[in-house]
Amino acid sequence: MSTDLSTENLSPGESAETPAVRVRGARRTFEAELAPVRALRGVDFDVAKGEFVAVMGPSGCGKSTLLNVIAGLDGVDDGTIEVAGERVDGRDEDWLARFRRHHIGFVFQFFNLLDGVSALDNLVLPGVLGGMKRRAAEARARDLLDLLGLGDRLQQVPAVLSGGQRQRLAIARALVNQPSLLLADEPTGALDSEGGLEVLELFRRLHEDGQTIVMVTHAAEVAAGASRSIRMRDGRIES
Ligand SMILES: Nc1ncnc2c1ncn2[C@@H]1O[C@H](COP(=O)(O)OP(=O)(O)O)[C@@H](O)[C@H]1O
Ligand SMILES: [Mg+2]
User: Which UniProt keywords apply (predicted)?
Assistant: First the structure.
């Protein structure tokens, strides 16, 4: 790909050497009926700009919690989270919403697309929310959908697309506002093997173009597409 897909938003004071993600001593405990669940028990985790990191580990080990605290969708009880040189922990919802809009693209297992609107509008709406004029958002949306192989699907609603196409649409949406960081939580988990390969191939191309990606996955063959993988167990990073 040869567009500005990877052109990212730099924060004030951020330089090219600022790590994409720096997590230090992150702890997150959930109250539960029997006993508190310690989802993160002191996690240190760094991602350099341009890396494609796979996060693996058994169900319940804290992978989604780690992504959520990096995205500021959930808070930590202790420790610090930095994304693109900015502290994310301890911020209020308004700040987080603004930060996410400009710095973070999030891809979910079950796509979370807007079902009632076209593929194009699934991208234009977040673009406009992110501060783009409608025309600019539409141009960007068309470019992205072309690049992601959905250029002939602009007016279709998600329901008529295959699983792999829906996830590519969700990835296109996550990229509309040129996030410095793309987070994906089991993006191939709901897809058949063909759809999974489509999505993985797309992540590889984005990575080649310089996009920083952190992807949670169960599947070793999916993790093999990343430039580095880490393994979690019981709320800690094992390796
Ligand atoms: N909102 C929540 N409330 C209570 N417990 C939670 C919540 N989110 C996650 N947990 C618990 O925290 C642990 C880690 O969950 P999670 O990060 O989703 O694991 P993974 O993504 O690796 O499967 C699990 O035991 C899970 O049940
Ligand atoms: Mg999970």
Answer: ATP-binding, Nucleotide-binding, Transport
